[in-house]
Design goal:
Layout lengths: L6 H16 L5 H36 L10 H13 L8 H21 L1 H8 L9
Length: about 130
C-alpha cells in the first residue's frame, strides 16, 4: 500500500494545481477568489510547518512572566495573561511590564510573519522595511 500524503503535501498539491491549471484561466472576481484561496493555502502550510514551535515559544514567553508555575496549556495561559492585563497586574514602569511588552511584541511579530510570508521572505533577504522586531 502506498503511503498517504500528509496535510502539508496535500496543501502543496492543491496550491500547485491552482497555480498551474486554474489561475491562468480566470479573470475578474473569480481570479481574485482563486488568489485568496491560494493565499489561504500558503498560510495554512506555514502554520503546519511552524505552528508547533511558535506555540511552544509563546507558552514559554508567557510562563516567563510569572514567578509561579502556570501549566502547559497555551490557551489557558493566554486567558490568564489577558485577565491579568485587564486587571492591571503588570505595574507600569517595572521590569515585569517590560517583559510583558517584549512578549506581546514578539507574539505580534510571529503572527505577522505567518500572514505576511512574502514580506518576511523579502526582509530576510535584506529587502523591506527594518524594525525592532
Amino acid at each position: 500500500m502506498l503511503p498517504r500524503p500528509g496535510a502539508a503535501d496535500l496543501l502543496k498539491m492543491a496550491q500547485q494545481a491552482l497555480q498551474d491549471s486554474v489561475l491562468g484561466k480566470l479573470e475578474g472576481e473569480a481570479k481574485y477568489a482563486a488568489l485568496m484561496a491560494a493565499r489561504a493555502i500558503e498560510i495554512a502550510e506555514a502554520e503546519l510547518r511552524e505552528g508547533p514551535a511558535a506555540d511552544r515559544a509563546a507558552l514559554k514567553a508567557i510562563q516567563g512572566l510569572y514567578e509561579e508555575p502556570i501549566g502547559d496549556d497555551l490557551a489557558a495561559a493566554r486567558k490568564r495573561l489577558a485577565a491579568d492585563i485587564r486587571a492591571r497586574r503588570f505595574a507600569a514602569g517595572t521590569p515585569r511590564e517590560v517583559r510583558l511588552l517584549d512578549a506581546l511584541t514578539s507574539a505580534a511579530a510571529t503572527q505577522l510573519r505567518a500572514v505576511n510570508i512574502k514580506y518576511m521572505s523579502q526582509r530576510q533577504r535584506g529587502k523591506g522595511a527594518e524594525s525592532a522586531v
